[in-house]
């Protein structure tokens, strides 16, 4: 593959200068430095870009954006039932960087990097060093996908696949479009939320230049994450024919109330994004303090159904290792508009 020698884009500069020092972050937010845990930071480093920091409230230790990224002492607690591989992805690995859990779609680890380190990430312990797709490993992945005629969709994941350059993404999508039985390409990403400038004309061109139907699934958990710059980025995608969805994680102390989830759905839909999934927490070691029990989550979404039309209510789900699909959790009450 030809190296990308083009000048670094603005979004890459923002990515390169993401804040990694908790003391710096807390000082800028006018908060005491003792909020952070050094042990948790060492186990899973802080990483948060400037545009996301700009949406945090100064002087508020419980800001819902800050609490998603700040290393806390609770991450060091050992909790029964929480593991380093909660979704059993090691068993579903079909090749280097290839995870095949569901019959008609396959997931590719397109990048090991992220723009932001979310403390609840189910891949915070993932062995990225063993799952880099490049060179012959990309050719191996293409052969695997071409050999399985039941596959209809390829999902780019990571890390965050949009850490990858537009040029490489374009090459990868063009290669996939040569496989006749594929119909769609999907990108799961948080980057347009945390660095909206990542949505470039080159990226939308890469996503829409082939016969494959393009889908982007954003990851936004709180309405405070969605400002005008995020809205403008989403508009660029939709204007070029990209289907844009959102999935969120239900997180204790961040979005575990009806008012916040209602505003999240309405804020997304203002820019044409439909809620897709609301996941209960994947039981990854270090994140137990974010957990909302299933029954509480079901009651919450049941109440959400009384506040929103059905198309704005995300499907409440849990991903269970070894299951052939997501496991939907039935809301305890609500309407059926």
Helix and strand run: HHHHEEEHEHEHHEHEHEHEE
Instruction: Give the total of beta strands.
Output: 10
Distance between the termini: 50 Å
What is the architecture at the second tier of CATH? Alpha-Beta Barrel
Q: Return the average pLDDT rounded to an integer.
A: 92
Instruction: Give a quick account of the main beta sheet: strands, pairing sense, barrel closure.
Output: 10 strands, mixed
Fraction of residues in helix: 25-40%
Verbal overview:
The chain has a single domain, classed as Aldolase class I (TIM Barrel), CATH 3.20.20. Helices cover 29% and strands 15% of the residues. With 337 residues, the chain is α/β, with parallel strands linked by helices. It is globular. The N and C termini lie far apart (50 Å). Strand 4, helix 6 and strand 5 form a beta-alpha-beta unit. Helix 10 packs across helix 11 (294-305). It has a 10-stranded mixed beta sheet with strand order 1-2-3-4-5-6-7-8-9-10. It contains 11 helices and 10 strands.
Name the features.
337 residues, alpha/beta, TIM Barrel, 10-stranded mixed β-sheet, 11 helices
Q: What topology does this entry show?
A:
Layout: H1 10-16, H2 22-28, H3 38-43, H4 50-53, E1 93-95, E2 98-102, E3 105-109, H5 136-147, E4 153-157, H6 166-177, E5 184-189, H7 191-194, H8 201-208, E6 213-219, H9 228-239, E7 243-249, H10 258-270, E8 274-279, H11 294-305, E9 315-318, E10 327-328
Parallel strand pairs: 3-4, 4-5, 5-6, 6-7, 7-8, 8-9
Antiparallel strand pairs: 1-2, 2-3, 9-10
Helix pairs in contact: 6-8, 10-11
């Amino acid at each position: 593959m030809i190296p990308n020698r083009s000048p670094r884009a603005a979004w890459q500069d923002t990515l390169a200068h993401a804040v990694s020092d908790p003391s710096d972050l807390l000082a800028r937010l006018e908060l005491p430095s003792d909020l952070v845990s050094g042990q948790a930071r060492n186990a899973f480093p802080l990483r948060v870009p400037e545009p996301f920091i700009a949406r945090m409230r100064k002087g508020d230790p419980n800001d819902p954006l800050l609490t998603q990224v700040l290393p806390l002492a609770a991450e060091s607690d050992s909790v029964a039932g929480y593991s380093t591989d909660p979704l059993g992805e090691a068993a579903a690995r079909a090749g280097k960087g290839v995870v095949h859990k569901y019959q008609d779609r396959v997931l590719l680890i397109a990048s090991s990097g992220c723009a932001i380190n979310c403390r609840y990430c189910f891949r915070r312990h993932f062995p990225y060093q063993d799952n880099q797709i490049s060179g012959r490993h990309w050719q191996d992945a293409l052969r695997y996908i071409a050999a399985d005629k039941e596959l209809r969709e390829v999902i780019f994941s990571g890390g965050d696949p949009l850490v990858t350059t537009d040029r490489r993404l374009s090459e990868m999508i063009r290669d996939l479009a040569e496989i006749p039985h594929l119909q769609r390409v999907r990108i799961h990403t948080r980057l347009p939320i945390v660095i909206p400038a990542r949505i470039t004309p080159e990226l939308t061109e890469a996503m829409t230049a082939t016969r494959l139907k393009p889908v982007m699934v954003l990851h936004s958990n709180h309405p405070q994450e969605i400002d005008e710059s995020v809205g403008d980025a989403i508009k660029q995608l939709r204007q070029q024919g990209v289907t844009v969805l959102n999935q969120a994680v239900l997180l204790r102390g961040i979005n575990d109330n009806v008012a916040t989830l209602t505003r999240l759905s309405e804020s997304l839909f203002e820019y044409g994004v439909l809620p897709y999934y609301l996941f209960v927490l994947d039981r990854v070691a270090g994140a137990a303090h974010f957990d909302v029990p299933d029954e509480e989550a079901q009651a919450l979404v049941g109440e959400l159904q009384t506040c929103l039309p059905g198309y704005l209510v995300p499907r409440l789900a849990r991903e269970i290792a070894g299951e052939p699909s997501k496991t939907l959790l039935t809301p305890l009450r609500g309407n059926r508009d």
